[in-house]
């Protein structure tokens, strides 16, 4: 049995590497190199946690060397937040405070909120709460509703209870009915009983405005009879698929995922990833991929691999920086499907493709 498991893991790793090789063949021919340094730093940093310990020390100097050339605070924070646990304490604190000071100069509220959000887990306890509060305050003032909704959903996992309550209040005030409801639904798994009741009450009060809302209320309500739950989920899913605004449709599918039975999850995730893959702005696309990674990782291996293969094939149609950024966001999937060997080979491929085709 042990030999069979070992053979299976080896075969799985080979499949992963074959798929990656095919993807690299397409990427090597692309001419767009804008953002290459940031993308290389991000993908190498994202792979560090999954490398064998003896390999991490070989990659960290490359990451830090690339980090020196990154001047945008958001891009520095994205790299730093991954490798921070592996840096010497004095270097870690120095880099974190540098990024924090740079964040004050970011005029784009969305990028500023995400920059603060990424570094807060690594800040000292006394400073962390204040920076979390700043990130939430900035997110609440983002004018573009889709960006505000996604920022609130991304912030939620790291907020303490009192700030999570403020995020909920901000979500309740989103004027677009569908974005409001799907943001509330995405936040719902992290809420306590009283907060969930507030969400259900708000959705119920809006039911006459959109047919989607009464269905979503039934999905979230503990009072929905068990024999009606699957019918309700199918109705909610059908309605989510008809949402015209693509970011809202992706958010709708994401908010439904925790409530789906296992047999429905692969097809819904596949549909969501199709829409994510079509997102042109690479940093926003990477953040969307990251949202779905925990759900993706929970699938049986053969289903997770099918999604991976389809995703890589489409990614080769984009620029090299875009492909590298996607790999960084999907590094947990590389490890989940191919193990440490696939991670090591991916690091080598990143170095090779930029060494021979800079």
Question: Care to describe what's here?
Answer:
The protein starts with a helix and ends with a helix. It is built from 19 helices and no strands. The N terminus is likely disordered. The chain has one domain. The protein is mainly α and 358 residues long. The protein is globular, with a radius of gyration of 21 Å.
Based on CA atoms alone, the radius of gyration comes out at: 21 Å
Q: Report strand %.
A: under 5%
The helix content is: over 70%
Number of domains: 1
How does the overall form come out from the CA principal axes? globular
How far the N terminus sits from the C terminus, by CA atoms, comes to 46 Å
Instruction: State the helix count.
Output: 19
Largest sheet: none
- Which parts are unreliable, with pLDDT below 50 for 5 consecutive residues or more? 1-8, 23-34
Instruction: Quote the average pLDDT.
Output: 85
Q: Helices and strands, in N-to-C order?
A: HHHHHHHHHHHHHHHHHHH
Number of strands: 0
Helix/strand class:
mainly alpha
SSE arrangement:
Elements: H1 2-27, H2 36-47, H3 53-68, H4 73-83, H5 89-103, H6 109-119, H7 125-140, H8 145-155, H9 161-172, H10 177-187, H11 193-206, H12 211-220, H13 226-241, H14 246-256, H15 265-277, H16 282-297, H17 301-315, H18 320-329, H19 331-356
